[in-house]
Amino acid sequence: MSEPSAPGVRGAIFADTRDITPFRNGHVRTSVSGLADGLNDAIAGVLKGKAAGRIDVAGDVPKLKRLAGKTAKSVYDAIFTSTEPDSLIGVARTYPGWAGLCYVIAGLLAYKHGGYLRASELLQRGLSIRIDDAASQFSGSYLGRVVTRVEVAERIDVPILFSEESVFLALSHCFRETGQTEEALDVLASLPPSLPTALARCTVAASLERHADVITWTEGLRNADDLSAALLLIRAQSLRAFGERVAAQATLGEVLRRKKTSLALRNDALTDRALLMLDVGRRTLSPRPSIPGAITRKRRGGRQRSELETVDGIRKDVEVRRLWNKDFGEPGD
Hints:
Layout: E1 27-28, H1 31-47, E2 56-57, H2 70-81, H3 85-94, H4 99-112, H5 116-127, H6 133-142, E3 146-153, E4 156-161, H7 164-177, H8 181-186, H9 195-207, H10 211-217, H11 226-241, H12 245-257, H13 263-285, H14 297-328
Antiparallel strand pairs: 1-4, 2-3, 3-4
């Protein structure tokens, strides 16, 4: 189960203190980069003689040891040559002691192909079956290079080496895609702190309107890379939902501070900042009940000037956003 939602129960969850982590550099997916990534993967597969649809591996597929047994050879072939989960499921039924491992890899393969419902079923089934020692040793020897590209937040993909993070983050995304939002948050509760995990947890928590959790989990975050910038955007949205507009503005300023932040994320920050200005404008321009004789002509004139300055500020911010989109926005924005 996930932790209680009361603020202060747990602090920030984004600081990964490990010397070695399973995560590789994440990136912001756009329509253009998505097409380029797909083309690059296809070209790389052809050059390496690798059939499309197989499980992804960082570098070359590890070679099978000469003295490997019949079971290990069957599982090895099923993992590194299969393009569909069915082969792995067949091997799992043949060798029960290896079934948990085979179902998990089959689930990751189904996830790679976008079959989120089937992937969630296979992953859960694999996690529920205990594997024997031989299967565990095989996993440590041959699966260290297996990579799963997981969507940890909207448009944010992170390649993850085979580990509990790759399996649980993929399962959480499957739950999000199939409408099981509470389950998506629960499955991440036991993972160690890291930016990708924090992104996934805060994405789900924000969709559940658990904004207090998001604010607590992201306290002290700075914009050091695109993953942290994406997490700051979620924090700003939760602060705005909480009514903390000044803090939200400061958070968006942190997103815009680093010049090398992804243009897509900077564009989102500018949009959110304009929306915050509109919120402030609506609050300022909304009619307020007045007490007869309590407002002098001088005060009334000062309030009118303040309202005009607010309107001018909104117009300027919208104009800045229009110029930004003209110069740097994505095609079609």
